[in-house]
Design a protein that fits this description.
By secondary structure, the chain is α/β, with parallel strands linked by helices. It has ten helices and 15 strands. It has one domain: Rossmann fold (3-Layer(aba) Sandwich), CATH 3.40.50. The strands form five sheets. A seven-stranded parallel beta sheet has the order 3-2-1-4-5-7-12, sandwiched between helices. This is SDR family NAD(P)-dependent oxidoreductase.
Length: 324
């Protein structure tokens, strides 16, 4: 797959919400490399300034700390920066946290999206990318296609993303905001702020003799390296034809939590004891297993460069090499 400047021209200005986050910061890097001017916003709830420190000082990049629920601040941003397109990645992506604060996902996932849509419509911004999730399907069985499958989320995160998708569809078809939705799988790589790899590394640094794992470790999912995901975003952004398009991205194969634990232990604290729980999932709302049909995205010309376990291994290496 060739990633070239056809994704954008030098005079294109992109707004990246969640731009200091794990995936958002990687997307900022790639958009800048393709010739976009980029404004990144983040409330720094999960985002980290260290993720974008290397971009500070560039004339084609600007960061602003901004809460997307601040409608006045958002309105002023659009009036002054005048973006041509929006890549909306801002969200509470810590699924387990939604069980402690059940308003969190409503505020940070759904209401941020509806606020953004209203501001985009007001300022005549006509293109939007939205980061969605496999969690909209809940515990669906089989190889799930974009247009088929029970939309029965079992987490507040999944429910809020599904509600946001519904609003996106209405705005796209009613007001002409061309919208691309990409449902993410489990994404791994450097700059992550949570997830199994992140948690395991931190636990072993705190106690290099023992790793405690939530659940029995048999949860099995496809993992995708963040660089491959950014490839998918940009390819679909360039080639998706319709006013409202939904695609799935996923890694090849599956990796269990037990596999991840063993990989991390081998790299961080060889010989550490691994202790598993008895539950079939790590937390309330965790989906123990899922599988995507990615043929629609493959038809556009995308395929992940790495298999699931290779993505996990690379992520561990990069996180350890970068210090986060």
């Amino acid at each position: 797959m060739s990633l070239n400047r056809s994704y954008g021209a030098a005079d294109m200005h992109a707004l990246v919400t969640g731009g200091a986050g794990f995936i958002g910061s990687h997307l900022c890097d790639r958009l800048l490399a393709l010739g976009y001017r980029v404004t990144a916003i983040d409330n720094l709830h999960l985002g980290r300034m260290r993720n974008i420190d290397h971009l500070q000082g560039r004339t084609d990049f600007r960061f602003q700390k901004l809460d997307m629920l601040d409608r006045e601040g958002m309105d002023q941003l659009f009036a002054t920066d005048r973006p041509d397109a929006v890549f909306h990645l801002a969200a509470n992506s810590d699924i387990a946290a939604g069980n402690t604060n059940t308003e969190l996902d409503l505020q940070l996932n759904q209401l941020t999206t509806t606020t953004l849509l209203a501001i985009m419509r007001k300022h005549g911004v006509g293109r939007l990318f939205f980061a969605s999730t496999s969690a909209v399907f809940g515990e669906a069985e089989g190889n799930i296609h974009e247009d088929h499958g029970p939309l029965q989320p079992i987490s507040f995160y999944g429910a809020s993303k599904l509600a946001a998708e519904a609003y996106l569809s209405v705005y796209a078809l009613s007001f002409g905001i061309k919208t691309l939705v990409l449902r993410f799988p489990n994404v791994v790589g450097e700059r992550s702020t949570h997830g199994a790899i992140y948690d395991f590394i931190n636990r072993l640094k705190a106690n290099p003799t023992r790793l405690q794992v939530l659940g029995n470790g048999r949860q099995t999912k496809p993992y995708l390296y963040v660089g491959d995901l950014v490839d998918a975003i940009l390819l679909a952004w360039d080639k998706a034809p319709g006013p409202y398009e939904v695609f799935h991205a996923s890694g090849i194969g599956e990796t269990s939590v037990r596999d991840i634990a063993e990989i991390v232990v081998s790299k961080v604290a060889a010989g550490a004891a691994i202790e598993y729980g008895s539950e079939d999932r790590g937390w309330l709302g965790d989906v123990p297993r899922f599988s995507y049909d990615i043929s629609r995205l493959v038809t556009l010309g995308w395929a992940p460069k790495r298999k699931s376990t290779e993505a996990v291994e690379l992520a561990v290496e990069r996180i350890l090499a970068n210090g986060f």
